[in-house]
## 1
Amino acid sequence: MDADPRAELERWHAARAANFYDATPNLARSLRVRLGDEGLRAIEPGLRAFGEAVATVVEPSVRAAELRPPSLETADPLGRESQRIAFDPEYARAGRAVCASGIAAAPAFEQAALLYLLAHAGEAGHACPVVCTAGLIRALRRDGSPELQERFLPPLLEPDYDRCQRGAQFLTEVQGGSDVGANRVEAVPDGEVWRISGEKWFCSVADADQFLLTARARGAPAGTRGIGCFLVPRRLPDGTANGFRIRRLKDKLGTRALATGEIEFTGALGHAIGAPDDGFRIAAGVVLNTSRWLNALGSAGLMRRAYLEAASFSRFRTAFGHRIADYAPVRENLAVMRVEEQAALASTLELTALVDAIDAGTADREDRVWHRILVNANKFSTSLAATRCVHRGIEALGGNGTIEDFSPLPRLYRDAIVFESWEGTHNVLCEQVLRDLVRLDALELVLERVRRCLPAGDGDAAAVAEALDKLAPRLRRSLAGGSLHFRRQLDLLVRALQAGCLLADGEAAAAALHVRRHLVSGYDPEGDADYAELVDEVVGADLGSG
Ligand SMILES: Cc1cc2nc3c(=O)[nH]c(=O)nc-3n(C[C@H](O)[C@H](O)[C@H](O)COP(=O)(O)OP(=O)(O)OC[C@H]3O[C@@H](n4cnc5c(N)ncnc54)[C@H](O)[C@@H]3O)c2cc1C
């Protein structure tokens, strides 16, 4: 036993990851499967540099920035009306490191890996701005006129934080976030441009330079058919504010370094992105789907960080004369965390391949349908898993796990809960998938795509195939009518996909534990003679021996 009771904690601190890319070898393995050696080599230096920047710059900065969250200054020192949002200087320090990685405009796989690494620091006040900017870039590239592209894209692509512009996306209104078709904010034509009026209720990145928002053109039909998608610059060309007032910033459970406001627009000048009656397709199909994909990478990244914290703590913490990592229930808890985080990353990289194909214009109709289903199903499943995983991490640290400055886990936990609801709540995403499966008659295609990810074989691969065979008629019953059981079924479908991807990536032990826990009906670890060995296979290498 150490003479100094803090010695083991000091050893733990000294051993914590200083580079999140190097600390996650399975990320490189999965990327290599999808990009090949050469593809990985091309992006690896950037990922490694960013893995270090997140650990050494973003993480400490976000902690400071959360202690002094953004505030709204409604008057300048001379008493003139102002809408300035003030941040702790550490916020910009983190932002410079994030922006310099080129994350907002990177190609899909690189963007995915960078976001995953960034989320090791939680939302960090910068993940949401990156995601909104990435969505706006895609919307402008796909649906913006050449004039809009020329004027608004270059500052979004700028990798210098002090010169770049950032995007925001405002859909939610007081009467509802899920039901975008109920939007009341109005757009009135004014020559070539539009005048936007009304109130948006959840406006993250309230400090952004370019707001993408949904609004209904005056006289347009009710529901989503009447929704337009508009770009509202923060400032007019002469530098004055563009017809909006931030009523207040919200005091939030999580993502506390991020400025989320309530904003009222009164005749703000807006530019239509695409046709004004095509806005819902752009806002949901391009912008929100980018956010939902990247949200899942955020969930996977913060799960990984929770695992790294919990596993390293367990190696150094002793209780009753033993390292806690040597207690079977601790190892089991860590093994479950590890498998959950690997599974979330696996299905999300499968989704990334579809995003990559869509961005490159090589996706066919079936790819697009599969993407539409998976992006919603995967966001729902991974964000729920993230909260559970961080919760397990807090358990591993005991009472210390609840202390704000002892580890990032309380912050990650709060952020994970926000990740669950923004970009679509669980029920709403599941309802969307159910509707799409019926409308697009896509169930057989989806089942075929999940099966396609599954390598041939006995054992775990066969167990996944059997689980899918049993799930298919249950899904058909839900499609025939009734959503009561669909959420559970959809989660199983994502689990089956994750198992297939883990097997295909050669992550045999993680796949085996995942299959047993989620896909083998009636599985009882007590009746499994190999269970303890399997747990050790999953976490043994990370925990070493006592
Ligand atoms: C920190 C934070 C930042 C945010 N930033 C932004 C932002 O920048 N821009 C933006 O546009 N929005 C933002 N949001 C809003 C977010 O997108 C909404 O909260 C979300 O879409 C849900 O909308 P709501 O809160 O109005 O919930 P509601 O739509 O009122 O839903 C309440 C509950 O009812 C359930 N429900 C609703 N419809 C159904 C149904 N048909 N079947 C079953 N259950 C249903 C939901 O699942 C949910 O559990 C932010 C939210 C948070 C927490």
## 2
Amino acid sequence: MKRSSLEILFVILNVAAFVLIQAAAAPQEKQSPIHIAVATFSHETCTFCPDQTTVADWEYYGPPTRDILRGSSGYIGGFKRMCEEYGGVELVGIISPRDSRGGSSGSWLTQESFDKYSSLIVADLRQAGHLDGVFLALHGAMAVTGIPRPEGELVRRVRAAVGKTPIMVTLDLHANEDQALADQADAVFIIKRYPHYDAGLAGETAARVMIKTIHGRYKPVMAVRKPGIITPSVFQGTGTSPAMQIMERARIWENENPDAYVSVAFGFAYADVPDAGAVVMVVANNDKKLAERIADDMSDFIWRLRKEFAGKILPKTKEGIALAIKAVRDGRRPVVLADHSDRTGGSTYILEELIQQDASNFCITTLRDEKALEAIAGKKAGDAVSLRLGGYSDEFAGNAVPLEAKIDFLGNLGRDPIAVLHFGKNNRVILTPQLMQVTDTRIFDQLGIKLEELDIIVLKSRVHFRRGYADTGIAGAIIEVDAPGWGPADLSTLPYKNIPKNLYPLYRKD
Ligand SMILES: [Zn+2]
């Protein structure tokens, strides 16, 4: 049967209406390529440490740079990788400061330095032309004189420059944050592992959600909770419970709800700031109720684990060294001693006690002593030296230790001088001009030290050393030693002024 022209017209109209309805309902795909700006401004501030972090510290390794998209590691590497996988994304490197000298052994950032780099980032974003999104790779534990919540303030300034453009942030698990950051950023993603194996993964997640959001397929909403707990870094390793249980629960929520991103930061207890303590941050796709429900559950769960999380007791110096010597005798070598409380790097309690207890084949990896390095600058390997080492990097750094030693190595590592002194019963101390957290064993090769000769390795690290020593099976035994320092396991010894007055275990006892 032939169709009448009226019927044909009817069909055409129907098809046209269908196409129009589909177009209205479909996500608003942006024209390719989309443009996403990337910037970083990252610091973990030990506000109890003595030396403030200035512009000069920020520019020690060079001036701010736009060249931040190079490399494939970390948050930005992961972000880049996911953007390449999706295709149709052009990343715009925004001028950003490099790492600061001394890293987290640095105290309060000067407001001048914060304003300087925030302004540089904001000005560069304004110059960047059309942007569909802004990705900020931050840390979350920055402390700035006169600015109570620096990451929130940075994002507020960026927001003023880019308007409604989505802004997404990645943070370290040691972040101190609260609602203020979530009020400014569209989405926040935090790593789940300490040691921080998953910075790249957090970057990938941020990129995936950013791209979906730009194309109108995702509408981020956030819920934030503060469980009311503060814990020292040394208890936060995610290779053991309760930190492991907490992150496992976050992953279960994510598995059940593939559109939800469940983050927990355990916080950085050595920054005396008003948003200190653990935080839960949940991102969900246009489902505020779901975000709130997950955030409540995670916060309650962390609160229930508070006693296990905050209450471990660690051996003090004398007891810790005795345990190490016994472990060597038991054949569990090398024994790794984590000198976790030394935040500035020049503390000598463990060196002094090892000598006192007549230990042999140990290596202090490393001791910060820029003055000793200056004193031996003109010498060479093989020379004998008589020095007094360390004990001045902060008021808890202990006594200067007198040492008759031979120089085994004197040279440079990167732009910093480094030396190996050999003394006593085949013992060594590696000297660096600033705190160096050694997280793997490469340094021994670089400095000509045979790892198999070492019975005891002393590291100025809390948990990150586990990456190279525990998770690789190298350490025969690990002993965390609670020597005096600005990074103690017992937080009640710290002179806090600014942290919330409801935190367990400092202000609430049960
Ligand atoms: Zn961290």
